[in-house]
Amino acid sequence: MRRVLILLTGGTLMMRPTGATARGSSALGLEDRTRDLVAALPMLTSIAEIETRELFAMDSGDMQPADWLRLARHVHAAISERTHDGIVIVHGTDTMSYTASALALLLGELPIPVVLTGAQRPLFEPRTDARENLIDAVLVATMDVPEVSVVFASRALRGVRSTKRDAWDYDAFDAPNCPPLVTLGVGATLAPHVRRAGELAPFDERIEERVLAVRVFPGLDAELVRAASGRGVKGLVLEAYGTGNLPRSLISALEHVHASGVPMMIVSQCLRGFVELGRYAGGAAAEAAGAISGGDMTAEAAIAKLMIGLGRYGPTDALKDYLLRDIIGERA
Ligand code: ASP
After folding, report:
1. 37 C-alpha vs ligand 1 centroid, how far in Å?
2. Among 62, 70, 105, 151, fewest CB within 10 Å belongs to which?
3. What is the pLDDT of residues 185-197, one digit of tens each?
4. Which residue in 140, 72, 148, 142 sits closest to 109, CA to CA?
């Protein structure tokens, strides 16, 4: 039987009621949490031999890059020990796609599956989605899916392509530019684009947290963008319109940011499709001002990649090459 390590980090799946909210529904918290998943869901042991470790217990809304590193370090060590065939990470849904993106880029090629999952309703509730998600996650962790994935609502998505798209529906995640890796219906169908197993590289912890992401909108004050470079911002992600278009009133601010040595990457506000900076005058001017195309990356992946790239290469040509290259399936 395959051996699966479950790492608990918190999130709604583990939560229990802590009191009443102002609107009368019960508030959820992690003070009195569900830790023993096997006791709560004994059938997990019919899929794999399970070992569970609680790494931390956080609402994922509080997670920071230091927590990604703690988690990534633990996953790296567990893979290196070769004691398990797959790893499941129980995580809050709010920042699951950020963590999944960071883990994929921090860890690189993987010999075994690393699966993130969580739930919109806690495991102890009768109408929970936690049971199905946990069972599917443990199953995917036993399959030939050696990448960081997000398992939710009967699908395994490429983690570095995923995004939380729904706050209320059980089908909460999407990977808009990458078909599911596994579709879990009556059977479990593996897609042909699942990555091949690779050797784990030595762990590289370098990361630069001082990255700012700005959504472009009509009325965005160019002076605020210009001021960012004097306030310690080391990298800028601009969420632009459509194929990477933005108001030309921002261009001189972008030139200033670029001249101050702050790399800028442009992703799209649209869920599907990709950035092509030359398509319209605004995007072309941004490119001439030094902006780098994020292609079809999600904003989550772009932010994590800029942090990790800056940590590893600083604001250099090597960083530009890293950002434009597909590292682990995050961009076409
Ligand atoms: N606030 C929770 C979290 O992200 C939401 C969830 O898990 O669904 O930790």
Report:
1. 17
2. 62
3. 999 999 999 999 9
4. 148
